[in-house]
Known about the structure:
Blueprint lengths: L21 H10 L1 H13 L6 E6 L7 E4 L1 H4 L4 E6 H6 L8 H7 L6 E8 L2 E8 L3
Parallel strand pairs: 1-4
Antiparallel strand pairs: 1-3, 2-3, 4-5
Amino acid sequence: MNPEDLLNEGAGKQEPAAKSPLLSLERDLKVFNDAIREVAVEIIVEGLSKYPIFIAHQHELKLGEVILDRHELNSDWTIHASTLEEFIERGVIKPELKERFIASYKSPKDHMCVFVVVPEGANFVYFPYIK
């Protein structure tokens, strides 16, 4: 899947919460909490970006770098690591919306920024790190 395919404006009806794939995402994010936090810290400390973004998906995606492969880990979601800069470069976030994104970005010390990609579309969610 290419970055320009991620944002689907005509998202359909939402599934009932009991069938939501987001429940399995929440479980996976809790399990891999420490690994994701470690990558976020590394991105910031190495000066790659002040805005790490993690991409959660269940299919093929050409954005960021795989850090947790669902097939290797027997989990439901694959997680990629990326940055705000790559999202702008690849056209997922328009340059004119950069400041708005930064204003809404939650502290990477307390929350992981996750770009969740599902068949109906994609959206950003902030998931608190488990301390």
